[in-house]
Design brief:
With 177 residues, the protein is mainly α. It is 79% helix and 0% strand.
Length: 177
């Protein structure tokens, strides 16, 4: 029973640290934010921070890992074959994370998202997009092309204040899949 309690408490700690970091990133350059400043705003100790992370980048990476894991669970319920719905769901999920995207762009940290998009979308593309008759080289280049396009579509959408509908962008991207 103590493990469930510790797990719940640890999840709250991580959420508090992430929320504090996002609030600080709205007002300040990321590289000028300290761990002490983040933990003070989060109401947790530095020790609690270091039990979970080594750097502030790890806070974002961990959050993105959780985000993509949840998205993967959602895909399972839809089915991997329905590319349009998978893209639509992804865009809808990211639209709910507007501040994260804006902060990553503002603080020149989009590479953290690109790394996660690449690894995740590579898995998805290998399962659903690439024709298994492709040569291994063509498959790799096709996946990278789609990942880069999707990532840039996401960043451009955020840069335009999410004005375009998720449906419009899913239709647009689906044309290339």
């Amino acid at each position: 029973m103590p493990n469930k309690f510790n797990g719940h408490r640890n999840a709250i700690t991580k959420e508090s640290i992430f929320t504090a970091l996002m609030q600080l990133m709205e007002k300040k350059d990321f590289h000028k934010i300290s761990i002490t400043e983040t933990t003070t705003k989060a109401g947790v100790s530095r020790m609690a921070f270091y039990r979970n992370y080594e750097t502030l980048e790890d806070v974002i990476t961990d959050y993105l890992d959780t985000f993509f894991n949840e998205y993967e669970r959602q895909i399972s319920s839809v089915g991997i074959e329905n590319t349009h719905d998978i893209i639509l769901m992804f865009l809808s999920d990211f639209k709910s994370e507007q501040q994260l995207l804006v902060n990553l762009i503002k603080c020149d940290l989009t590479f953290l998202l690109l790394d996660k998009c690449n690894s995740f979308l590579e898995q998805i593309c290998e399962k659903s997009v690439c024709d298994k008759l492709y040569s291994p080289t063509k498959e790799v280049f096709t996946i990278k092309f789609l990942c880069g396009g999707f990532f840039n579509l996401l960043i451009e959408w955020a840069s335009h204040d999410f004005k375009e509908s998720e449906e419009y962008l899913a239709d647009l991207f689906s044309e290339y899949c």
